[in-house]
């Protein structure tokens, strides 16, 4: 079998490094064609030395210069490119079969669209790209004849629990139930959330992840983004998307059928499992993850969103359903506001509980009209970011 040639967008991140780990377990099956990062020169250099990709792209121009100098000093053949256009180029390159989309945030949308239009197998970890792109993203997938496969653990679980034929989903499925860990503050008094530090927010109880998604898990905005992501991936209306808190993260999500049967996917919390599934689909390959040991599984518990003060503790979650029912483009505004607010929290410019205030203020201030193309979408994203910064300035 000819090796599958892969571009890993965001190769220095949590998903990126896990992807390279899975790929390394299957020499001959996969080959790395291109890698990308924003600023981490040392790690990208080490990955280039090990994997010898044809291209390495850095979002930051200074970092690209430093990487090129060091590759030359070590006589490594990888060609360095810089900036957003270069990301699109390695995503759409004719020699590429598979693109792992593991950039964090809306910055990943344009290369995802490029991969979609070029008809690649697109492994989507970058949920923000779909939350921003919505139907426009799906149109690009259809037009390009791409194969979109979910990598987010919940969506991989749902995909594994659904019937093979998407045409039967609407008729056979009653609802999708996304599980949520509840993050590090699941049992905290809501009033204490104003004291939360970035370090506390990034300490997820079950998963080791990048800082942005870790903060999103702590506010449960991650689950809000995932409800929106599920709507676009699986085509069910907002009222057929449910969330239940499951603190152990053993059940990664579930599908409830018309006859009330529930089909779920379970496993240890290790992203190499959905990554291996996306890479090899429809086959299964070794991921390197530890198997679940049911004899040592102490507990699997569940909490309703309407119990234990969760609605007050996690007010942002509801915005997912509100934005899905509002004007198309609202989910892009929510995402932009949240990216800006999370960055401000990590920079200690706002408090943890103010992330939600910024999101709400931005949603109510930005007028949304249905975006017709990528230019419209990017303009809406930029307006929402500017508005979110204004809301932050009013808070501080
Ligand atoms: N981590 C996880 O377990 C999961 C993550 N996801 C999703 O996957 C995506 C990646 O998450 P994660 O791996 O945790 O994030 P990380 O922060 O660990 O990694 C992000 C990657 O993107 C690069 N990057 C950051 N900003 C830019 C930019 N503006 N332009 C180009 N590249 C950029 C980073 O480069 P550099 O290292 O140089 O900064 C890094 O390679 C997110 O959308 C997240 O929601 C989904 C499910 C689980
Ligand atoms: C690993 C993964 O997919 C994350 O999105 C994870 O699910 C976060 O967990 P919670 O958002 O449920 O805390
Ligand atoms: Mn997830």
TrEMBL record:
Q: Cite a single Pfam family from the UniProt record.
A: DXPR_C
| Pathway participation | Isoprenoid biosynthesis; isopentenyl diphosphate biosynthesis via DXP pathway; isopentenyl diphosphate from 1-deoxy-D-xylulose 5-phosphate: step 1/6
Residues binding NADPH: 12-15, 38-39, 126, 128, 210
Residue ranges of every copy of the 1-deoxy-D-xylulose 5-phosphate reductoisomerase C-terminal domain listed in the record: 148-234
Q: Which GO terms describe its biological process?
A: isopentenyl diphosphate biosynthetic process, methylerythritol 4-phosphate pathway involved in terpenoid biosynthetic process
A molecular-function term among this protein's GO annotations: NADPH binding
Q: Which UniProt keywords apply?
A: Isomerase, Isoprene biosynthesis, Magnesium, Manganese, Metal-binding, NADP, Oxidoreductase
In this protein, which residues make up the domain named DXP reductoisomerase C-terminal?
Answer: 266-386
User: What positions does the domain 1-deoxy-D-xylulose 5-phosphate reductoisomerase N-terminal occupy?
Assistant: 6-134
Which spans of this chain does the record mark as coiled coil? none
Q: Which residues bind 1-deoxy-D-xylulose 5-phosphate?
A: 127, 153-154, 181, 204, 217, 222-223, 226
The catalysed reaction is:
2-C-methyl-D-erythritol 4-phosphate + NADP(+) = 1-deoxy-D-xylulose 5-phosphate + NADPH + H(+)
Q: Identify its protein family.
A: Belongs to the DXR family.
* HAMAP family named among the record's database cross-references: DXP_reductoisom (MF_00183)
PANTHER family documented for this protein? 1-DEOXY-D-XYLULOSE 5-PHOSPHATE REDUCTOISOMERASE, 1-DEOXY-D-XYLULOSE 5-PHOSPHATE REDUCTOISOMERASE, CHLOROPLASTIC
What is this protein's function?
Catalyzes the NADPH-dependent rearrangement and reduction of 1-deoxy-D-xylulose-5-phosphate (DXP) to 2-C-methyl-D-erythritol 4-phosphate (MEP).
Mind telling me what this protein is named? 1-deoxy-D-xylulose 5-phosphate reductoisomerase
* Organism encoding this protein: Ramlibacter rhizophilus
Q: What is the lineage of its organism?
A: Bacteria, Pseudomonadati, Pseudomonadota, Betaproteobacteria, Burkholderiales
The gene name reads: dxr
């Amino acid at each position: 079998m000819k090796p599958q040639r892969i571009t890993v967008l965001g190769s220095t991140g949590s998903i990126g490094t896990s992807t390279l780990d899975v790929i390394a377990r299957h020499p001959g099956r996969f080959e790395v064609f291109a890698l990308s990062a924003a600023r981490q020169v040392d790690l990208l250099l080490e990955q280039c030395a090990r994997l010898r990709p044809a291209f390495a792209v850095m979002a930051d121009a200074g970092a690209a210069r430093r990487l090129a100098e060091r590759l030359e000093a070590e006589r490594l053949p990888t060609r360095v490119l810089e900036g957003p256009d270069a990301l699109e180029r390695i995503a759409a390159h004719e020699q590429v079969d598979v693109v792992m989309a593991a950039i964090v945030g809306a910055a990943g949308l344009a290369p995802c669209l490029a991969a979609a239009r070029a008809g690649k197998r697109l492994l989507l970890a970058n949920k923000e790209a779909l939350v921003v792109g919505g139907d426009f993203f799906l149109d690009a997938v259809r037009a390009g004849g791409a194969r979109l496969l979910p990598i987010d653990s919940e969506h991989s679980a749902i995909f594994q629990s659904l019937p093979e034929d998407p045409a039967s989903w609407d008729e056979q499925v009653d609802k999708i139930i996304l599980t949520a860990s509840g993050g590090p503050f699941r049992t905290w008094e809501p009033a204490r959330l104003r004291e939360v530090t970035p370090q506390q927010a990034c300490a997820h109880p079950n998963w080791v992840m990048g800082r942005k998604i870790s903060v999103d898990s702590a506010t449960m905005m991650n689950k809000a983004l995932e409800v929106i992501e599920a709507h676009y991936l699986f085509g069910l209306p907002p009222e057929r998307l449910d969330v239940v808190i499951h603190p152990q993260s053993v059940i990664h999500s579930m599908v409830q059928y018309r006859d009330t049967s529930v089909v779920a996917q379970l496993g240890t919390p290790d992203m190499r499992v959905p990554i291996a599934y996306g890479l090899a689909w429809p086959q299964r390959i070794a991921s390197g993850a530890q198997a679940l040991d049911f004899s040592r599984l102490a507990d699997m518990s569940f909490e309703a969103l309407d119990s234990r003060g969760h609605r007050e503790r996690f007010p942002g979650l509801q915005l997912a359903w509100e934005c899905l029912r509002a004007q198309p483009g609202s989910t892009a505004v929510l995402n932009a506001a949240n990216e800006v607010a999370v960055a401000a929290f990590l920079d200690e410019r706002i408090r943890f509980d103010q992330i939600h205030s910024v999101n709400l203020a931005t949603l109510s201030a930005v007028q949304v009209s249905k975006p017709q193309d990528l230019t419209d979408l990017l303009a809406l994203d930029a307006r929402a970011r500017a508005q979110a910064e204004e809301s932050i300035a009013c808070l501080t």
